[in-house]
Every structure is written in C-alpha cells, then in structure tokens.
C-alpha cells in the first residue's frame, strides 16, 4: 500500500504520506537508522514498530494534560494518522543532564546534572548539520515569531516535566530530548502544536541506577543491543505486551 500513496516527505526515521482526508497525513515509522552529519547507517528490524507505539503512548498522554499535538490515532504497527501542520524549521532541545554536544562544547563531564533545565534551538537543516541558533537568529530570519518562541519554550518545559516524571517512575533518567513543533492554521490564525515523535530516537534515556544507555546513543557509539534497549523502554512503560513477539524475543 505504501508504494501507491503519494509521498510527501521522507526523513531519517519516518515517511509522511498524503492522508485519507484533507488536513491529515499518514506517518510511517521506518527501521532505517542514521547518525545526523555522519555516513553511518543501518536497518534495525523492529525499531519503527517500537517507536510508533512509544510515541503514541506519550502523544496521547500529553494531549490529556493540555499539550496539544499532531497525533490523531495509531493505524497499525508502523503508521499513525496525524494532523498536517506547517512545520516550524527548528529543533527544540531540552537538557537536564550534561551529555552529547553540550559536554563537548563546554567541557562538562557527561552525566553532570545541570543547574536547571536548558533549552536550545537548532535549525532543522540536515545539509547544514542542524546548526545551533539563537532567539535573535530565529526572529531575524522569521523562522518563528516571538510569540511562537514563547509558546514552544513553555510547551517544551511542560513536556520535560511530564516525561521526566513518567520515565523516573520506571527507573529511567531523562537526560535530554528533542522535539519539533508546527503551526495548525485556522482561517488567518495559527497555533503551535507538538509534532514529529517522542521515542528513544529523540530522547537520551539512561537507566537510573546503572547509567546504561537505552537510546540511540547505543547506535551512535557502537554499543550494540539497540533494539533490545528500545524494547526495554517499552517494557518498563507497560506497553511491551502489545509488541509483536519477534521484538519481545529480543529481551531474552
């Protein structure tokens, strides 16, 4: 079926197809994995299935606490029906613990708790390596308005509080995460909604006791057992029982 539908966009981990009704899209989760800015690529069987289910889990719950998002419903193992948004060309990163590029830029030991949660913006352009940008850049180049920036930051902090609590309750530390937002137009007015996905592809997740990585860093750093770690996150969240047995088998 996917080959007959009109493809709207294809990224590292997902494909967007034309939806069944105006204003909707179908978001397909791929098994393809790559490291932004690096040639390293792989196909990890079952990754798309796990990410689809984890993202559904969080989008549904965020909606109940007032964080509106593009998610409408899950269609099958790999697909979601979503609202079509005008994507704001920014990645919003919330950091709670020093890791990744933050550690490298400021010489902070990985794992050091930050004085408070830090929000960073990156231009959503893989050809440029998704460079970090300031609020001054964003408003000068009209990537987002001042009001949209305020909305995105407020939403990002609410998402951080919710995710931190949810993961913390199952023994996982939310080190940092990346989200994207889009505009939902209603006549001449638009409002900012959460878009993209929330999964181990977009979050840094560490076991709270052992500091073992349970996210995409396992792929980036050649640590192995990537799917097993993603499946472990799903298991702790209580959604593993709904996974296909082929993925569940990876936990043994």
Number of strands: 14
What's the overall average pLDDT, rounded?
A: 92
Low-confidence stretches: 248-252
Question: What name does CATH use for the topology of the largest domain?
Answer: D-amino Acid Aminotransferase, Chain A, domain 1
- How are helices and strands ordered from N to C? EEEEEHEEEEHEEHHEEEHHH
In CATH, the homologous superfamily of the largest domain goes by the name ATP-grasp fold, B domain
| CATH architecture annotation of the largest domain | 2-Layer Sandwich
Q: Per the principal axes of the C-alpha atoms, what is the gross shape? A: globular
The number of domains: 2
Approximately what portion of the residues adopt beta-strand conformation? 25-35%
Computed structural class:
alpha+beta
What percentage of residues falls in helices of 4 or more residues?
Answer: 25-40%
Distance between the termini: 33 Å
Tally of helical segments:
7
Quick one: biggest sheet? 7 strands, antiparallel
Instruction: Supply Rg.
Output: 18 Å
Question: What is the level 1 CATH name of the largest domain?
Answer: Alpha Beta
């Amino acid at each position: 079926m996917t080959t007959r539908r009109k493809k709207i966009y294809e990224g590292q981990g997902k494909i967007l197809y034309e939806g069944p009704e105006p204003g909707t899209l179908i978001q397909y989760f791929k098994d393809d994995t790559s490291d932004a800015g690096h040639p390293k690529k792989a196909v990890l069987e079952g990754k798309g299935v796990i990410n689809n289910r984890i993202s559904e889990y969080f989008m549904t719950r965020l909606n109940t606490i007032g964080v509106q998002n593009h998610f409408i419903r899950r269609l099958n193992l790999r697909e979601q029906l979503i609202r079509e948004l005008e994507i704001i060309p920014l990645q919003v990163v919330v950091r709670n613990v020093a890791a990744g590029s933050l550690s490298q830029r400021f010489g902070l030991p990985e794992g050091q708790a930050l004085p408070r949660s830090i929000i960073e913006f990156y231009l959503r352009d893989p050809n440029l390596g998704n460079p970090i940008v300031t609020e001054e850049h964003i408003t000068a180049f009209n990537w987002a308005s001042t009001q949209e920036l305020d909305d995105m930051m407020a939403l990002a902090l609410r998402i951080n509080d919710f995710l931190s609590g949810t993961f913390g309750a199952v023994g996982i530390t939310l080190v940092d995460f990346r989200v994207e937002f889009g505009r939902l137009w209603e006549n001449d007015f638009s409002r900012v909604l959460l878009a993209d996905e929330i999964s181990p592809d977009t979050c840094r997740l560490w076991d709270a006791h052992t500091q073992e990585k349970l996210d995409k860093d396992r792929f980036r750093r050649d640590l192995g057992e990537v799917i097993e770690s993603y499946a472990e996150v799903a298991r702790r969240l209580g959604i593993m029982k709904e996974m296909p047995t082929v993925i569940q088998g990876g936990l043994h």
